[in-house]
Amino acid sequence: MKRSAFLAISAGLLLAGCDLAPKYIRPGLPVPATTPANPPVAAGIRPAIVPADTAWRDFFVEDRLRDLLALAIENNRDLQLAVANVGQARALYRVQRADLLPTVAASGGATYQKNPIGAVGGVGAGAAAGSGRFDIYSASVGISSWEIDLFGRVRNLTKAAREQYFASEENRNAAQTALIAETASAWLTMAADQERLRIARDLEQAFGKTLELTRARFRSGIASELEVRQAQTSHDQARSDIAAATTLVAQDQNALNLLAGTTVPAALLPDSLGERDATLDSLPAELPSDVLLRRPDIAAAEHQLRAGNANIGAARAAFFPRISLTAALGTTSIGLSNLFASGSDFWSVAPSASLPIFDFGRNSGNVAYARASYQALVAQYEKAVQQAFREVADALARRATIGEQLGAQRSLAEGARAGYRLSNARFRAGIDPFLTTLDAQRTLYSAEQGLVTTRLQRGLNAVELYRALGGGLR
Q1: Phi–psi pair at 355, nearest 5 degrees
Q2: 121 Cβ contact partners less than 8 Å away, ≥ 6 residues apart
């Protein structure tokens, strides 16, 4: 009889092979085949890297920035939340996967019974003489209400849970990629604000000297009160800019502390943008669009799509019979000493099946809902691809012109510095009026601030292109 029970269970396992989920086909990419063409990497620079294959420690070449990124990855709370979400999804997948196999449980029990009718009989094992009392003991091992997955309902639910788990892992990767990009951008922004603060202080000193000279000339009757007021205005503007830049630097540090999840040591904070780039410059100029599939946010959207496809199969399976099995194997006897004696064993196998006949459209509605949910996930996936393509295209478009803009801005700043030196010398020599020097000072101030802004945009563009192409996981 034990052999028959084993064969019945094995037959149920062998039958569990039908899958009603549609065959998954990845949607086509709703974007052009390649990213927009841009000028190739400048000669003399090593061949373009593949961001998704380039570790962030290799892409960011500034030591302080690398250490800050490592600190942020270790302590950032948003990333810790994403890691916890992965753990939750993994646990739910394990719970759902357990339904594929029967839960085997051991049980034991004892029943103490007194029956006055039984007092007339003799004394049996475990019964008190003449009392009608019986002590019944049992022990068994069995499974209860295990669903034999003939039509793939449980397997599709398990597949959906697994894809949700994979999606949570990709969301965690996306969170790390975003964290690296945000932290690097915040560090570069603080570096630029430090330079703006330095420029404002330098020009405040220059304006202060000009103001003193103009006042002296006014007291001597050489300069007018208007020139004094103009010099005072430029000096006050520089003082105001110093206060504003000081505020920005403090706010930048607060932003870095939040991203890092702890107080950033002063040794890791930037003091200026410096002459050396903080990142590699050998990013690709043109790529096939399918590289976007390596972005973690797109990979997460596809896992959600696969989960939705599996849910359709689970909903379809509800139209078919649900077969479950309850089985037990054990021993029972009157008296504990006879519990495992010969002839005390028993077994039972109780299969059951249920088939919906009238559900008033419930199952049809569930299938329609699963299909509609899948179509919504398709739209979300395609939108994620389109958004990624736009981010890459925008970053490449900026990269195509930022070099020329930076060169022009440097030339502008050099010309403004030379013009200021000449106009200041001519003013001190009494050749040019003060207004010419004032205009030269303002032009220099604007040009140097513009140069810092352009250099910052160049650094931010490299970080954004690296992120948009899926870099930052390794």
Answers
A1: -130, 120
A2: none
- For residue 109, give the 3-state DSSP assignment: strand
Residues of the chain with CATH 2.20.200.10: 103-148+323-354
Identify the weakest region by mean pLDDT among 34-43, 68-77, 92-101.
34-43
Which token pair is 77?
A: 């709370």
- Residue 434 buriedness (CB in 10 A; 0-12 / 13-18 / 19+): buried
pLDDT band at 39 (very low <50, low <70, confident <90, very high): low
CA atoms in the 13 A half-sphere facing the CB of 56: 28
**AA identity, residue 16:** A
What whole-number distance in Å separates Cα of residue 330 and Cα of residue 442?
Answer: 96
* C-alpha–C-alpha distance, residues 414 and 272, integer Å: 19
Fold of 22-100+150-320+362-468: Outer membrane efflux proteins (OEP) (1.20.1600)
What's the rounded Cα separation, in Å, for the pair 189 and 455?
A: 10
Whether residue 36 contacts residue 396, with contact meaning beta carbons closer than 8 Å, is answered with yes
Domain 103-148+323-354 has CATH 1.10.490.110: no
Q: Which tens digit of pLDDT belongs to each residue from 312-332?
A: 998 988 888 888 888 888 787
Q: What is the pLDDT of residue 412?
A: 92
SS3 354: strand
Q: Give per-residue pLDDT as tens, 287-307.
A: 778 788 888 999 999 999 999
Q: Is the pTM of this model over 0.85?
A: no
